[in-house]
Amino acid sequence: MIEANQLTKSFKMYPSKRGILNSMRSLFSAKYEIKHAVDAISFKINEGEFVGYIGPNGAGKSTTIKMLSGILHPSSGTATVLGINPQKERKQLARNIGIVFGQRTQLWWDLPVKDSFEILKAMYRISEQDYRLFLKKYDDILEIGRFLETPVRKLSLGQRMRADLAAAMIHNPSVLFLDEPTIGLDVVAKKNIREFLKEMNRSHQKTIILTTHDMDDIEQLCSRVIVINQGKTVLDGSLEQLKNHIGLPSILKVLFDERVNPKNIIGVEKIEQIDSELTILYDRSKITSPALLQEISQWGTPKDIQMKEPEIEEVIQYFY
Ligand SMILES: Nc1ncnc2c1ncn2[C@@H]1O[C@H](COP(=O)(O)OP(=O)(O)OP(=O)(O)O)[C@@H](O)[C@H]1O
């Protein structure tokens, strides 16, 4: 249903120079580097799958989504979505996919939400009857009725995201590309969006690719994860496989009263040292936190200790 075959996108990177004149010169000079934002990625996604597409900042997630949705042309390799070539048949694809970019709205900023919906209704040639059903349905599940008359720029972030999600569904697409749809939302708004996405996938059989920095999104929604780093796939499997691979990662920051000499400890994946401060990434499935504290207190006298769960990107950077 969605297929990427050695999909690659490279950008020319010109060295950044100070001043407008120098910047212009570097643009026209022959000196540039090639950056492979997406580097020969291949996968097949079946109908009804909910796939988390994750990786650290700059890994190539958005670039992949843009190629799958026909916004960007691949430098090499191919993609097909529902048997459609996104670049050659972009209009036909647009009728069958919905896209949400959490970082920016697809709606008309100064218009009331309803006006944006009506523009989309005309663009997709949706009948009056289907449009009324759409408004009713998405009022029931996303409560869009509460802010239909409000200009998009005056919506809260949570309302804006609900409006964007509803807009992406107006033509009842079978595939959804969601690029960080929960970014910046509070806990309640995130929960609402996740409930909505779950329903779209389970009850309405939508095929969904989701990029996110939020591990809870992945845990609660995705049956499969594709992890990318520096443009390359580093894992394609179940959530269980991801967890088995990374264990139970935790980070311990310890400030000693003087510089110490760390030693190898089983279960410790990585230690970073800046003067007398150590940042220790360890796997709680291999060593417990008290056991680790006991070990490291033999290296010196700790003055301050902090423990935290790492962000998804930290984990991926450490493990891949
Ligand atoms: N138009 C462009 N010109 C040059 N480089 C680009 C362009 N678009 C993206 N890149 C580079 O390609 C790489 C991948 O970017 P991309 O936005 O796909 O990453 P991402 O995984 O979505 O990151 P984030 O999580 O920060 O959104 C980055 O190094 C980025 O700087």
TrEMBL record:
Stretches assigned to the ABC transporter domain: 22-255
GO terms, molecular function: ATP binding; ATP hydrolysis activity
Keywords: ATP-binding, Nucleotide-binding, Transport
InterPro entries, per the entry: AAA+_ATPase, ABC_transporter-like_ATP-bd, ABC_transporter-like_CS, ABC_transporter_ATP-binding, P-loop_NTPase
Domain of life the protein comes from: Bacteria
Record-linked SMART domains: AAA (SM00382)
Statement: the UniProt record of this protein carries the keyword Membrane: no
Keyword ATP-binding: yes
PANTHER family, sorted: ABC TRANSPORTER ATP-BINDING PROTEIN, ABC-TRANSPORT PROTEIN, ATP-BINDING COMPONENT
Protein name listed in UniProt: ABC transporter ATP-binding protein
Organism expressing this protein natively: Fictibacillus enclensis
